[in-house]
Amino acid sequence: MTQPEINFADALKEVAQARNINEMQLIEAFEQSLAQAYTRNVEPDKRIEVHLDPNSGELEVLVVREVVEKVEDEHMQISLADALELDPGVEIGMEMEFPVDREKFSRIALQAAKQTLTQKMRETERNVVFNEYKDREGQVLTAQVVRSDNKGNWFVELGAGEAILPPREQIPGEKLTPGSRVKIYLKEVRKTPKGPTILASRADERLLDYLLRQEIPEVANGIVEIKAIAREAGQRSKVAVFSHNSNVDPIGACIGHRGNRIQAVTGELGRERVDVILWDGNPREFIRNALSPAKVGLIEVGNEGREASVTVTPDQLSLAIGKGGQNVRLAAKLTHVKIDLRETAAISDLDAAMQQAMHDGVAAPENSAAQSAFDALFKDSKSVATASPDDLRD
């Protein structure tokens, strides 16, 4: 039994606490490292076992040999006759342990084991981080901003590890400062040769979804459902909502009294503008709502619902397009429909009548004959805009 000058158990315990590593895993790594170092550098043909008592700190380095009738490998075996001289109770097949001389051990072991132990500690740390967060993908966590690098990446501390916020996952224009706390969406956790990589995002639309559920009780309890989200982080988002209770206004519930609910959401996102619109099962009405605040005219949906042509008057065109095309781009992303805005001189009452007739046609299949007649009369929005009562008489 060897009494080390250094209490390895206490030293490893401190390291384990400082690096958030399981103490017993670190002790096991230490034992394996020491055994490998001794085998490689001192007695390569022998079987070595190392045991460290986590409580007393006593360290044993043992050569293990099997008791046999006839020795074929003197490094791994011992004859029964020799074994009986050491221990009268030993039998064939049993193993005997022989302590390694302390001086012999001390000369080589610590230095040789240091590198192996350091490597194992890194592997253990990486596994701890990976296991901690591998099942938390898709969650929103609160993290502390730590630092940035010259590539524009920001790093945030999660508790057991760091996550990276690359530029594409940051909110454009947002100024992060070390020490501040932010909410992040845990987008991906994966193993790499250099250790686990934790990818965080503040630009993902699912962060907005989480904040809406957190701030709006009607969304959290399912009365108001978020049907779709289209987001351009840091600038503007559109959220389509639907109420499963006719007595609950979904838009009002999301906005809150004097906008307090939606302001709490936008406040976390650097004052990003969030438009809440009403979801509608009718594609035309959904597209119309998605293009708000612009007021649009006739909407024709084609190509199996993947494309839509929308007429807009000149005074509403710039509003429908939005700054840099943002409004129509978000509307298209929200509805999953390619939207083509077509300027028209004016939206006549006839347009509105036709829109209503087409809407009624969807709701009441028996009116399909009237719809067909209408379509035959007006093939496109231009003919509608220039139609006159005489056309109908013809």
What does this structure look like?
- The protein is 41% helix and 25% strand.
- It is of the alpha+beta class and 394 residues long.
- A five-stranded antiparallel β-sheet has the order 7-6-5-8-9. Strands 1, 2, 3 and 4 form a four-stranded mixed β-sheet that branches.
- A hairpin with a 5-residue loop joins strand 5 (140-148) and strand 6 (154-157).
- Helix 2 crosses helix 4 (102-133) and helix 12 runs antiparallel to helix 13.
- Residues 362-370 and 376-394 have low confidence and may be disordered.
Question: What characteristics describe this protein?
Answer:
four-stranded mixed sheet, 25% strand, 394 residues, alpha+beta, 15 helices, five-stranded antiparallel sheet
SSE order and pairing:
Layout: H1 8-18, H2 23-41, E1 47-52, E2 59-68, E3 77-79, H3 80-86, E4 95-99, H4 102-133, E5 140-148, E6 154-157, E7 162-165, E8 181-192, E9 195-201, H5 205-215, H6 217-220, E10 224-232, E11 236-243, H7 250-255, H8 260-268, E12 273-278, H9 283-290, E13 299-302, E14 307-312, H10 314-321, H11 326-335, E15 338-343, H12 349-363, H13 368-377, H14 381-385, H15 389-393
Parallel strand pairs: 2-3, 11-12, 14-15
Antiparallel strand pairs: 1-2, 2-4, 5-6, 5-8, 6-7, 8-9, 10-11, 13-14
Helix pairs in contact: 2-4, 5-8, 9-11, 12-13
